[in-house]
């Protein structure tokens, strides 16, 4: 890395780096990725260990505070998250204003941003207590908003959060298709969802996190910043890939069509891409993809859904792509999304909710990155330069002389 602070702007020197492929925009102590080795660490802990031995709230606390919580800290954090899990009744009215078939991500962008109308935040003070309260509110309310988006998009009665349930358990509980009491969430499914949430929790300066930081750099309200992150996450090149992968697998329909799909992905004149493959940082297996595949296998076996035809297609597609010289030469490997759709489908989550689940999980990363940035003594408003390619200065032509 070259420290661009050493390049004097007064001399007019600037870097041209579309997509920021080689530009570090911040210093961060939260998440480390090693794209060549396929390693991902949250505050130094391998993501595989956190997924296997920890859970989402441990991970959220770790990302926010830098250390895993002690027993007492964990209890307090859990209580805070539970305390904030309800949303203002008036906010619930917002959901009724969306078109009946609105995509739940469109709803999430709106309602997460609307939280800024309910919870004041003094950006000029940025008090430590105010910051933490906003972060916890967001982590806590996102599952409730997600379940509300799902329920209202289906015209189903809403289910309020339950404070005696775990984080993932509560999310599954609120999303239940047919509300009935007592409703029991399958612990196997709840545990699998906890793992998914841990895998999605943070990923350094990806497009959505970078967007949250950019919005936050102007001192915007944190709830509005997270809404901007949700919008950036939605695209199929980013978080929307989990939905795109599953739709692609359904579209393929059978293993006999795999050669045709691989040929299309390699064709430079065809815009088609193999969703769930390739990553800006990882030039080998995304470590999360291996854990996700293991979760898919365990879940399908444990729930008795021992056969999902889409898993058969996914496994064969992965094998065919990995054996193909195009993918090897472009260093394209499965990313976290390749198997996530299979897992979410086995959890009974509808496809349109896949990216919403991702946004719930990524909230811990977004708020931690936002908090890190606002506490940085000399953070600057994000304001990249450009290479101007337009017209040079010219004189205004009155409409009578424009022909
Ligand atoms: N299928 C086929 N070819 C691909 C794919 C793919 N999935 N991904 C990249 N390539 C090729 C490109 O065509 C390009 O080829 P060329 O050099 O011959 O022109 C080369 O690999 C480099 O591609 P870029 O788009 O420049 O790579 P970049 O790092 O900008 O993009 C990205 C990374 C967006 C993830 C890309 O690999 C992609 O579109 N993948 C599919 C979508 C996807 O799965 N996104 C989820 C990412 S994980 C996440 O966000 C949580």
From TrEMBL:
Keyword Oxidoreductase assigned: no
MF terms (GO), sorted A to Z:
acyltransferase activity, acyl groups converted into alkyl on transfer
Q: What processes in GO biological process is this protein linked to? A: tricarboxylic acid cycle
Listed GO CC annotations: cytoplasm
UniProt keyword terms in alphabetical order: Transferase, Tricarboxylic acid cycle
Q: Which family does it belong to?
A: Belongs to the citrate synthase family.
| Protein name, per record | Citrate synthase
Which part of the full protein is shown? 70 to 472 of 514
């Amino acid at each position: 890395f070259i420290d661009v602070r050493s390049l004097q702007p007064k001399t007019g020197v600037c870097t041209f780096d579309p997509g920021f492929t080689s530009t570090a925009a911040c210093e961060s102590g939260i998440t480390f990725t090693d794209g060549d080795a396929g390693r991902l660490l949250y505050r130094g802990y391998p993501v595989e260990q956190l997924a296997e031995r920890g859970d989402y709230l441990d991970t959220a606390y770790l990302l926010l505070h830098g250390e895993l919580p002690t027993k007492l800290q964990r209890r307090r954090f859990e209580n805070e998250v539970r305390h904030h899990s309800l949303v203002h009744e008036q906010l619930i009215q917002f959901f009724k204003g969306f078109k009946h078939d609105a995509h739940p991500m469109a709803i999430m962008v709106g309602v997460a941003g609307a939280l800024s109308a309910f919870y004041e935040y003094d950006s000029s003070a940025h008090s430590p207590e105010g910051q933490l309260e906003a972060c916890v509110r967001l982590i806590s309310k996102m599952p409730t908003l997600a379940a509300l988006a799902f329920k209202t998009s289906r015209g189903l009665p809403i289910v309020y959060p339950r404070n005696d349930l775990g984080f993932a358990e509560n999310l599954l509980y609120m999303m239940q298709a047919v509300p009935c009491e007592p409703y029991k969430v399958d612990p196997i499914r709840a545990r699998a969802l906890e793992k998914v949430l841990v895998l999605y929790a943070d990923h350094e300066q990806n497009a959505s996190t970078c967007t949250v930081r950019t919005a936050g750099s102007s001192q915007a309200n944190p709830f509005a910043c997270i809404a901007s992150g949700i919008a950036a996450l939605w695209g199929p090149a980013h978080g929307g890939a989990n939905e795109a992968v599953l739709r692609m697998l359904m579209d393929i329909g059978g293993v006999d069509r795999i050669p045709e799909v691989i040929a299309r992905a390699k064709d430079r004149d065809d815009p088609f891409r193999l969703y769930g493959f390739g990553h800006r940082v990882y030039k080998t297996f995304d470590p999360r993809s291996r854990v996700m595949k293991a979760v898919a296998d365990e879940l399908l076996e444990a729930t008795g859904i021992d056969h999902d035809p889409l898993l058969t297609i996914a496994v064969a597609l992965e094998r065919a792509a990995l054996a193909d010289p195009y993918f090897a030469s472009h260093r394209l490997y499965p990313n976290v999304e390749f198997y996530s759709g299979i897992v979410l489908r086995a959890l009974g989550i509808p496809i349109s909710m896949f990216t919403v689940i991702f946004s719930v999980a990524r909230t811990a990363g977004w708020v931690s990155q936002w908090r890190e940035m606002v506490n940085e003594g000399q953070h600057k408003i994000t304001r990249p330069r450009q290479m101007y390619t337009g017209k040079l200065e010219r004189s205004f032509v009155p409409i009578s002389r424009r022909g």
